[in-house]
Write a structure and sequence with these properties.
Helix 1 packs across helix 7 and helix 9 packs across helix 19. Strands 22-3-26-25 form a four-stranded antiparallel beta sheet. The chain has 23 helices and 27 strands. Strand 23 and strand 24 form a beta hairpin. By secondary structure, it is α+β, with helices and mostly antiparallel strands. It starts with a helix and ends in a 6-residue tail after the last strand. The protein folds into five domains: about 180 residues, no CATH class; about 140 residues, Chitinase A, domain 3, CATH 3.10.50; about 100 residues, Chitinase A, domain 3 (Roll); about 100 residues, no CATH class; about 110 residues, Chitinase A, domain 3 (Roll).
Length: about 700
Amino acid sequence: MAILGQIQRRSGVLIGIIALALFAFVIQGLIKNSSSIGKGSNTTIAEVGDRKIPTQEFQKRVALLQKQNKNLSNMQAMNMVWDQMIKEAVLNNQFDELGIKVGKDRLRELIVNNPSIKQAFTNQQGVFDENALLDYIQNIEDNKDRNPEMYEQWKNFENSLIEQEKEKIYMNMIKASINPTLKEGEWLYHNENDAVDFDYAAVPYTTVPDSLVSVSKQDIANYIKKHDKEFKVDESRDMEYIFIPIEPSAKDKEAIKKDLTALINDKEVFDQETKGTKIRKGFKNTDNPEEFAAKFSDVNIPAKYYFKDELPKEYADTLINLKKGDIYGPYEVGNRIYLSRAEDVIQVPDSAKAAHILIAYKGALRANPAINITQEQAKKKADSLLKVVKRNPAKFADYAKQFSDGPTKTKGGDLGWFRYGQMVPEFNDFVFQGKKGQIGLVKTDFGYHIVKIDDLTAPKKAVKLVTIAKNVEPSMKTEDQIYAKASKLTSQAMKTDDFAAFAKENGYVVKPVRRLGRYEDNIPGIGINREIVKWMYNKDTKIGDVTKVDLNKGHVIVKLTGIHDEGLMSPEEASALVKPILLKEKKAEIIKEKMKGNSLEEIAKNAGGRVGKATGVTLKNPIIPGYGREPKVVAIAFVMEPSKLSEPIDGNRAVYVVKTIKVTEAEDIKNYLPYVEQIKKKENLGLNAKVLEALKKTNDVEDKRSLIY
């Protein structure tokens, strides 16, 4: 019975642990190769080699991930689970091929050594109770028929530990194969420490005007074909759209203003109890204006004092000069219309600087749990301290550091400058109704405050306003009119070839969106909208087709402008990347033709360049002063025979001819192991991601998501 009681006490903690582990299982966990799923087109969402990923398992994990992360859209969750399950599949193919397994004994060690498990089964003496854990596991096994959900969660937790361990074994095997030699360490040492001095003639590419060279579409296409790995792209779609917002009309605003105006004066209304009429006091004459405002306002705006700089600029002069009982409005600010009543007008400083010593008591708001003095004891302590502080105000900060329970204790109680109304009422009233240098005691819900007023601004006029606020929203009639307009424009857009001109003619701006993937749903300028993406990828949707999609805030008219199959980028798409490269190549050929001569000076003169000198340059830091990194140029300088002129070299910023003066080799050292370790560390950096990417490329992945999503 004692063991069962222990299990019951820990069950809540373990459920939390298993829930967290199950979330880790979604992100890192196990792929289930279920043979019970049929072989129909919708039962398998992907095939990775011979391994099938069941649709049911995939969707289950997507739903679980969304449950754990409510901010994720369905497509975001789907893509995250997809990446994870493909990773699991390619890794499990490797585990099977290499015979990597985790036995029962190792699983037991993983469970026992899991930090969360250890924490949950640590007894009152601070010792891990393994027997209690084993009893707990046995209890889950014994009750698997009565509590299958708990049993499944525990098995998923175990599976996640197994998969993590297998991945660790696999990656450790790969890391063990990375063994740089001492010769490689020696090479790295010399790469970092050998230096070269050389003279050069440099002709920058900027000396050749762009007008003298041209890059054709065919040039770009040839470059893409030659460097195809750099320009591979996934399937995507291009679109243009115009957004027609659902906005309130002028009539809608006038109707709201009319309703607000009707609230000002008394009104005869029907009385449900007497079945007769009675006079309902209006905003102007009501005895409780705050209650009246709360009843008719769309948003709660607490009554407060406003200084002129806190009021809307366009109405500030009028509002600050209201007299008590005056009503102003309706007036429009942003997406609301307001009606305000002046309750009071005062002259008061708008800002103050003060310090305080807080004496809290048990039960006070935000009091430290360690505080155990009573309210009476706190009052007595505060009264005594107040007398001491008044006798020696210069030591206020020291007393605050010693006695205050407030967060400003370390600052000597200094609160800095604060605005009128920023502090709780009791504190606010004492400070703003007091005088500079005054010290007194104030009680608030936080405790007893010994307050010192350090400074006050000059008094200014402030008006206390009670305000009714109405949201400006379109009426049903307006929404219907906008819907009809959007439908009409959609019909017209289907018949026009120039979508941009059509939009401009109707007062809208076309917004383009490029390269939307099949499984994306976040459209720039629109937000999450899977419906539009699905329409673009529908097999019946063709370039030039137009559709309308209704959103909460408006209507979107969408035109499909491009269909890109998986493959290589088009010359038009790659132009921004390739054209600068080809321009540089063509300019280099022009420059090389001019780089003739028997000396660097002669070459520079003939080609319109200049000569220079580089000293102590290394392969690790191949910088030529004034030109930046030029690794190709420096590498050639290292291997050139001294005093001979090189052939022209295409650099990053210019075309160079170099003449090596000398190469200084660093002295050999006794131990190159630190450099070997440096190579090993570099090769291990990001190894898991590199291995995974390589495995994905070597495994055939059949993607069937389009049948489901």
